[in-house]
Amino acid sequence: MAATILYGTEIAKDIREQLASEVEELKRKGIVPGLTVILVGEDPASHSYVRGKARGCEEVGIRSEILLRDASISEEELLQMIEELNENPNVHGILVQLPLPSHISEKAVIGAIRSEKDVDGFHPVNVGNMMIGYDALLPCTAHGVVEMIRKTGTPMEGKHAVVIGRSNIVGKPVSYLLQRENATVTMCHSRTVNLRHYTRQADILIVAAGRAHMIGSEDVKPGAVVIDVGVNRIESGKLVGDVRFDEVKEVASYLTPVPGGVGPMTITMLLKNTIEAAKNLAAR
Ligand SMILES: Nc1nc(=O)c2c([nH]1)NC[C@@H]1CN(c3ccc(C(=O)N[C@@H](CCC(=O)O)C(=O)O)cc3)C=[N+]21
Ligand SMILES: [Mg+2]
What we know:
By secondary structure, this protein is α/β, with parallel strands linked by helices. The protein has two domains: 85 residues, Rossmann fold, CATH 3.40.50; 124 residues, 3-Layer(aba) Sandwich (Rossmann fold). The chain has ten helices and eleven strands. The strands form three sheets. Strands 1-11-8-7-5-6 form a six-stranded parallel beta sheet. A three-stranded parallel beta sheet has the order 3-2-4, with helices on both faces. A hairpin with a 5-residue loop joins strand 9 and strand 10. Helix 1 packs parallel to helix 10, helix 6 crosses helix 7 and helix 6 crosses helix 10. It is globular and about 50 Å long. The N and C termini lie far apart (52 Å). The relative contact order is 0.17. The mean pLDDT is 97. Catalyzes the oxidation of 5,10-methylenetetrahydrofolate to 5,10-methenyltetrahydrofolate and then the hydrolysis of 5,10-methenyltetrahydrofolate to 10-formyltetrahydrofolate. GO terms for molecular function: methenyltetrahydrofolate cyclohydrolase activity; methylenetetrahydrofolate dehydrogenase (NADP+) activity.
């Protein structure tokens, strides 16, 4: 059996059309959703991702601005910038691109963003609200992964979902969101002994370990839904996932490519969060 390839670009296109009409409706009420991205330093990958975010905003009619700062910026200056954006009524979403230079505390920076404007869903208040099941801005990649699985029409209820990776941005929140869909979730990570023992039991396999090509067909249960969250730049400059695509596509029922899979969904969920933040802030 050959897998159906889940093109995030296509799924994202449908959702973005819907988002564009929501933006139009908001604009008729005089609300122009606005996203501000702060990008510190010269990392080419970060610059490329941020360009993707700005393009996404343009596509759906969100006003966006990118504030570029030198890697030498102090933590205090960065916190001051965030404070001003917190107060600016035209800014509904604030995103500080990670990673930050090592002299700046990510914890301090994320914690300084007003939680209603935290469109990454990384602020402890949003993480806590999500965990409790209260309304929250959800972490974009994790949310995008669940929406992709939903699009396949595969019921998640009662299924065994295995997540590889336990990061705050992907592994932890995606595990939680899948549990909320009534999946039975197993969390694995780089120290898991006999990883294959777990992955082979997965009806839904989420691979977010950040190790190029670590998962092959031997690791996958026939018919599984496999979502590859890996973004690894290999020596040739090519972007590859954590899954050996050509092998796994022969055994999985659904499989996401890299690029063109989860990445575009991540950006789409960021756009969705920005619109939601604009609605919430306007209603206050
Ligand atoms: N505060 C913060 N929020 C983030 O959401 C965040 C971050 N920091 N730091 C870095 C990671 C990474 N990330 C990606 C988003 C989209 C693609 C994406 O769309 N990738 C395209 C290809 C892009 C390319 O070719 O370079 C794709 O997969 O098709 C990739 C990576 C968001 N991140
Ligand atoms: Mg890990």
